[in-house]
Structure formats: C-alpha cells, structure tokens
Amino acid sequence: MAVSPGSGGLEGRSAAMLVAALMLAILAFQLNCSMISPALPEMAMQLHVSLTDISQVSSLFFLSGSICGVVLSRFSDFFGRRRMLIVVMLLCSAGTLLSAVTHDYYTMLLGRVLQGASSATFQLSYLLLHQKISRRLFGTAIGVITAVNGGVGGVDGYIGGLLSDNYGYQSIFLITLAVCGLALLAVSTLLPKDTPGVAQGSMDWWGAAVLSVSIVFINVYLNKGSSVGWFSAQALLYLVLFVLAILAFGAIEKRRKTPLVPVDHFFTRHFWPVITTTILILAGVFSVIGFAIIIISQDTHAGLGMSAALSSLLFLTPPALMGFVSAPPAGWLAGKIGWIKTLRTGLMLCLLLMVIITLNPVNKPVLLIGLALLGITYYGVVLSCISGLSVLLSPKEAPSSLTAVNGASFGLGAGLGIGLIAAHIGSGTLQGFTHGLMISTGLTALAVISGFMLKMRDA
Predict the structure, then answer these.
(1) Does one domain contain both 138 and 219?
(2) Do 331 and 231 sit in the same domain of this protein?
(3) pTM of the full structure
(4) Which of 86, 165, 260, 356 lies in disulfide reach of 204, CB 3.0 to 4.6 Å?
C-alpha cells in the first residue's frame, strides 16, 4: 500500500513557506548546473587543463548527484527529511566555497563532487511535500517544484555566460554560494521539525555501496560506448561489471530486513514502469532538447548555421519558460483527474511532437513551435507526473525507495539518449540528423508503451 498526502497537512501560509524553502534548495542545485556550463572554456584556461579534462567538472557533478540522490534520500527515511536536507545544503555550500577559491583542477573536482550532493534536494523535496502538505495542494506543489528544474526560466545559463565573460567564473560560484546560504537558512527556519517513525529499521549501507558502484559502471559504459563503440571490449567490460554489480545488489537486498529497494516491489507494475518511463522519455526527448537541436541549429553545412547565443535563445529558452509556466497547473490537473491519465496524455503528446520535429529537422518555425510545445508536454506535464508518481507509488515500508531509484534514472536516461544519437547528429548531414531524431522518436514511443504498463496501487 502507498501512503497518500494527508488531508490534514499544511495549507495556506505554512504550505507556501515550505514550498518556498524547497524551491531555494533546488535552485541551489540547478544554478550550480546551468550557470557553470557557459564558463567551462574559461575554467579550462585558468586551471591550465584541456576542454576534455574540464568536462569532468560537469560529469562528476552529475555522477555524484545520481549516487547521492539514491543514498541520501533513502537514508532520510531513518535520519529525517529536514535534517538530511540541511546536511545536503551544508555539503553543497562547502563544495561551492571550495570551487570559488581554488586554482587547482583536482580541488575543483572535489568541490563539484560535494556540490553534486545537492541533487538529492529533488527527492527530499518531493518526499517532504508528500509528508507535510495537504492532499488538496500536493499536485500543484509538485508542479511548482518541478518548474524550478528548468532553472530561472531558462535564462540562468545566459546570465552565467555574462558573469564569466565580465567577472570570471569565480563570480558564478559566489552567486550560487549566496543562494546556498539563503536555502540553508530557509530550510533551517521554515521547514517543520521531523517527525519520528517515517520508516522502521536501519539504513542498508551495503546495498547503497553496491548500487552506487553499479551507477558508476553504467555511466562509464555509456561514456565509453558513445566514444569507442557500444560493443568494443573497453565498453563491454563496464557493462559486464554493471550486470555483476546489479546481481550482487539483488542478492544483498534479499537478505536485508530493511533493504534499500524492496525486491518484491521492484517487479510490480507500480514500480518498474516508473523507472523505465523516466529513462526512456529522458533518452527520447531530453536528448533532442538538450543536445540534438543545439547541434543541428549551429551546424553550418546541413543545419541552420546559427550562433551559440541565438541558438540558445530560440531553442533552449522557450521550452524552459513554457515548462516553468505549465508545470504547476499540470500538477494541479494530475491531482484532479488522475496522475497516470495525465502522464499518458503528456507522453502521447510528446510522441506526436517528436514525429513532427523528426519530419522537419531543419525547418526553423516548426522547430521553434515544436520545442516550445515540448516545454509544456515534457517539462510541464510528464516530469511533474513522474515526480509525483515516484512518491505516491513508493511502498509504505520503504517510502523513499522508488523516489530514490527514479532520481538516478534521469541521468541514466539522458546519457543513454545522447550516446545513441551523438554519432548521427554529429555527422553534419541531413540524413544523419533524421536518423538521430528517428532514434529519439523511437525511444519516446517506448516511453509511451511503458507509461501504459503503469498502474496505481490500491488505496
């Protein structure tokens, strides 16, 4: 049985303060992600490393986020949601300060790993909303939190570029450090105290360690596969290690009284379709919004030949803005007519838009309108519903288990999708663009099928 948001939960001013504090915490993570990307070339120059080396600044940030999202959100079942969120913000603040003052590449990487822990703010926020807020406001609150996933309406990356150009990349970290400080203050003062008894038992640290190792292996496989070939010896080694780690994880979980992920729930239609839908929709749609269209729009041979600034303005900002505006009403609608029904509608609309984009890979008006509408269907509807369902469908005895694992699925899906289409999109030909977009559309179709496999638990 899953636990629904309580009808006697927070309303009015108390609910608004809770949501505001959680938005600040998530914004601290998001800004450390989006504002840094334009500054990577300058960071490489100042730290005296190559562009390939500096890419680890982002890679380790997301890898740390995937692991911490799983481990820390599950640990919060025993440690307390509010207390864990405070710890996460302290880690993020320490990492941001370290990144701002260092001139050493490896110290910078350590700082980014510490910052990556703030990825857990998403899972912890969803769990806190489920635990503290009223049933009537739960859907809308989920949508509001999901809206922040796109940053400050899509303009934070542009602001990061301006700061880097005029004041150096350190200025970005100082800005995000201030946000971390505000978030820490808000979480400490505005969030209600933790209540005991969220879950019985103790944290499964062995399971957490093995699952973390498996996340590392699958991420390395995706990176190797996209660069040296999916069936190369180097890539397959990490795929085999991933499979062995997952088998070991399953064996460990069966022997634990309080497993990280209850294995008997994992294979039900309340659990695994949430994970597969997340992986597939990220692989299908995010790979297009966050990668393919940017490459196509800037390609001077078969693409649109735009500058980086114009490309971002036309094709990144509109989807982010539309998602920011549409996520709260989408969450409200899901709470009214049903989470799964709303999710399936969003998935089917995503598929329709992906087909249109695939048929018009270099048609500027079609791309502009199609991507803006994807901002509504993908960022607004699908991500809000996925986030809500990951909480609502978690088993009662392990209330963060599905939320934790699903959080790691976001990075896995994005990496998989980009890896599968990178060679096609990077070919610089119209045929290559079309083939890459067809793969993404196929993955989106699989996400629709996965969404129809999902079912709610009995109340």
Answers:
(1) no
(2) no
(3) 0.86
(4) 260
